[in-house]
Amino acid sequence: MLVRWSPMAALLVVTALADLLAAAWVARRRAVGRVSVVVLLLGSGVWCATYALELLTYPRGVRELWGSLEYLGTTLLPPAWFAFALVWTGHREQLTRRLLAALAVEPVVVLGLLALPGTHDLLRSFAPGPLGDVPVVRVGPLYWVHFAWTTALTLAGTTVLVVRLLRLTQAYRRQTAVLAVAAAVPLLGNAASSLGLGPARQYDPTPLAASVGALVLVWGAFRHHLLDLVPLARHLAFDLLDDPVLVVDPLGRIVDRNPAAGRVLGADAEIGATLQALLQGPAALLDATAAGPELRIGADDAAREYELVTTALSDHRGAPSGRLVHLRDVTERKQAERHLRHLAENDALTGLPNRRLLADRLEQAVARAQRSHGRAALLLFDLDRFKDINDTLGHPVGDRVLQEVAARLRAGRRDEDTVARLAGDEFAVLLPEVAGPADAAIVADRALAALARPIRLDGHELHVTASAGVALWPEDGADALELLARVDAAMYRAKAGGRNRARHRRLHPAPATVAALTDRAAPPAPATASGPASDALAGAGLRTAIDDDALRLRFRPVVDLRDGALLALAAHPHWDHPLLGDLPPATVLSLARASGLTDGLQQWLLAQACGQACRWTRGSRRVPVSVRLAPRAAPAGGATGVAADVARVLARTTLPPGLLALEVSEEDVVADPDGVAEDLQELHRLGVRLTLRGFGADRTSLTHLRRLPVDTLVLHREVVDAAPDDPGGARVIGAVVTLAHLLGMSVVAAGVDRPEAAALLRSAGCDAGEGAHLAPPVEADAADALATRSAPRDGDAAAPVAVTSGAPAP
Length: 810
Prior knowledge:
Elements: E1 2-3, H1 7-27, H2 34-56, E2 57-58, H3 60-88, H4 97-115, H5 117-120, E3 124-126, E4 137-139, H6 141-168, H7 173-195, H8 206-223, H9 230-239, E5 245-248, E6 254-257, H10 259-265, H11 275-279, E7 291-297, E8 304-314, E9 320-329, H12 331-345, H13 355-372, E10 375-383, H14 386-393, H15 395-411, E11 418-423, E12 426-434, H16 437-452, E13 455-457, E14 460-462, E15 466-473, H17 480-496, E16 502-504, H18 511-520, H19 532-547, E17 551-560, E18 566-577, E19 581-583, H20 585-595, H21 598-616, E20 625-628, H22 642-653, E21 660-665, H23 666-671, H24 673-686, E22 689-695, H25 702-707, E23 712-715, H26 717-722, H27 729-742, E24 746-750, H28 755-764, E25 768-770, E26 778-779, H29 780-790
Parallel strand pairs: 15-16, 18-20, 20-21, 21-22, 22-23, 23-24, 24-25
Antiparallel strand pairs: 1-2, 3-4, 5-6, 5-9, 7-8, 8-9, 10-12, 10-15, 11-12, 13-14, 17-18, 17-25, 17-26, 18-19
């Protein structure tokens, strides 16, 4: 076999090697359409190589062989291109085995015809006579069928690709044009060669054109992401982004910017300007790597807020080469945050700060007054007979009255003062700096005078007055919580004194008040006993009843006021006295105190209640039990102290401490505040829950309340029962609930025997209640069934307790 080199042959060999190298590179990449592109490259490489051998080799038979093998490439390229178009445009599922088999029919037929001597010339043959350096090829009739098929398949693949991409987005116009050119070049070359046009009469440019198209596809689609979103994303992120973006060199100079930077920052954001001079910020600004300072650009309502975000830029060796500075527009987010904060801290009707914001500012005012050795004053205003306006003229008129009251209070304040609406018709004014009580009284009197002016609404002339309480720090309270409680008491003193006036909270109660409280703290007489003889008779048999286990327990369900779920069962001792009948818990406790049997009664009560509660807590069920503590009978920490009794009972019954709640009465706290506090501290260390019962009878001072580790307050049943009939009852309960919640305590209402009381307690935010309207007291057996049925498993909500009617619980 003879070989004769020519420039065209050398170019074809080089192109074939490039195709093979590109195919090997593509085969190692994980890219869409990888297999199709590899086939394209191999087909064009085979075509170039066989055409080169056809030009280089002799004699005639060898040249005819290489010429026939060129059709390996010509038959592979169109199907591979069509398959690439389907895969790249997301139609991989259409490339089924049936379609692949159909695409393989034409290559198999063509190669079969070329392999047979009798049909070879139907496709191609050399002209008769000696062959020159460039043989002249004659095409047969079947060649034009092959030409039409390959051209149609190539055009079909190109059409699928172009139409699909242009339908997705016009942003792919350039990429689509490049792909169309890559497909058109081999088509034009093949047409020129087949028709013998121009230079194509001598050399067939089609294999070179096919290789160029395939290499362009590889270079663009795989090397430079021709069809990827990277160029588009860069365009959108930098050029079309509404946020200013600056590229800053290591010296802090601007070397590039997007159009938004010019619009937002103006002419100062020119190339070469320094970032520090532009933003008037510290030089350390460039050291930030995440969300940094916020700045406001613009004036008045047109101003926008931006968050400065900087990202380090590194060169190819990883060395710092500058920063990318992004001014992220956070205007809408900031406005939304301010709106949510306003809703959380301001009253929706009047726009005034609410109780939450007032409490925060009151704490700040107290802290500032403490640092400056000054005073702060709190004024509380409650409108007189405001309910009459709502009842007679309707709530819309009442709302407008509240808005007018808010406007008048706001008009008379200083810039540093705070006017707040606490709830309903209750308003507060915080004076963070006052010289003394006289100044606070002047402000209160001026506010009352402003509120007393007639209010004209819809033809009505309304006369609205208010009662005001005044409290000062530090005279009237050690902290914000105590000040709130004191000013509330002062306001009720003003109401009781005739309304439309202000009263200042006195620091110490009058002697007569102390005497009255002492009398009220005395132990109550037995409810069913009659006279000293009956007391002595009952007391004599109590020890025997305790020793013989003749007492019994009844349980009052403690119910969630929101959904009626059972929260706990309160255990109370009853004694079926053979002569006096059923003695209620208050009588039993009084008899034990009078007979010196408080320790014995307490030990019996703890043992019985904890033992029964253990039956409720088997498995994963949990129902706490509440037990009333008898008055203090031994020094704290002593062998017979209450903490020691509780610890022994818990150890013997294995009841978890968290499922035992111990109640201490307000009377016991007043009688021995220091001793009760010591006992409660020891009990708190055991892990049991602690409850102060009978709160609201004006016996327990806030000082006592603050020093007691109490978890729950139980409102006195007299307060609860009288609240629905007292216009100020809801406010009293609301104030107590607010104070308790601020101290981290829950609130239980005793004696909820009427639906009106339950509704009022719910509106005041009370957590739970006990009473005949919610659930009647039950005997021990019924308590077992109720606790087992209603006890929540771990992670479950408690089941509601059925509300039944019945006599008030004792």
